[in-house]
Amino acid sequence: MKQRVLFLGPPGAGKGTQAQQLASSHALLHLSTGDLLRGEVAAGTALGQEAAAVMARGELVSDALVLAIVRSRLEQQAASGGGGWLLDGFPRNLTQAEALEGLLEDLGQQIEVVVLMELDDAVLLQRLLGRGREDDNEAVIRHRLEVYRDQTAPLIRFYSDRGLLQSVDASGEVETVGQRIAALLD
Ligand code: AMP
Predict the structure, then answer these.
(1) pLDDT in tens, 134-175
(2) The domain spanning residue 159 has which CATH number?
(3) Residue 125 burial (CB < 10 Å; 0-12/13-18/19+)?
(4) Ligand 1 atom closest to the CA of 54, numbered from 1
């Protein structure tokens, strides 16, 4: 069974929902940079204050900030005996993907599979509009989709070149999509 998993896909494809379920059924650490950043914002930390305005605009928080968060979590987990992890919402651009390679090399770990969740833009928009999160108004949503296309989508090529990419149809019921993903890990 694959233990080191990365979720890739546009906002609204259901990465968070699927990642959460898979992490709990497969006993993996679920590392969502979006959740961690929202936690920092809610707690009013210096880091959260730095990130809040950028997130509200639908842009990417600085690589240095996100990398520091991911590095500390992965190092912490490796130090406490390792185990699998599932990265959700990270990396978001090539700089982050390259930094992750370096970090994993330091830890002696490797990504085993990259799950690309695919969904039509029209469905994404509908899902995001129905979600009611603070950064989910229509102008910001459109911008987040643009940021995905410009900065994150190049990672599809990056990971397919490394033979790691597996695409999944992210349409349909949560449970059905979950079964498609689980099949890729077993
Ligand atoms: P998400 O929950 O993954 O949709 O992330 C929500 C927001 O958090 C994004 O729109 C970004 O502003 C920020 N964010 C999450 N992950 C990253 C990342 N890896 N790099 C930069 N910004 C991020």
Answers:
(1) 788 889 999 999 999 999 999 999 999 999 999 999 999 999
(2) 3.40.50.300
(3) middle
(4) 12
**Burial (CB count within 10 angstroms: exposed 0-12, middle 13-18, buried 19+), residue 104:** middle
For ligand 1, say whether the CB of 90 is within 6 Å of any of its atoms: yes
CA angle 70, 83, 176 (to 5 degrees): 85
pLDDT-derived band at 132 (thresholds 50, 70, 90) equals: confident
Q: Could you give the residue numbers annotated as active site?
A: 15, 92, 131, 133, 144
Rounded distance between C-alpha atoms, residue 119 and residue 17, angstroms: 15
Domain that holds residue 150: 4-185
* pLDDT tens-place string over residues 43-85: 999 999 999 999 999 999 999 999 999 999 999 999 998 889 9
The reply to whether ligand 1 has any atom less than 6 angstroms from the CB of 11 is yes
Total number of domains constituting the chain: 1
* Rounded-to-integer distance, Cα 19 and Cα 23, Å: 6
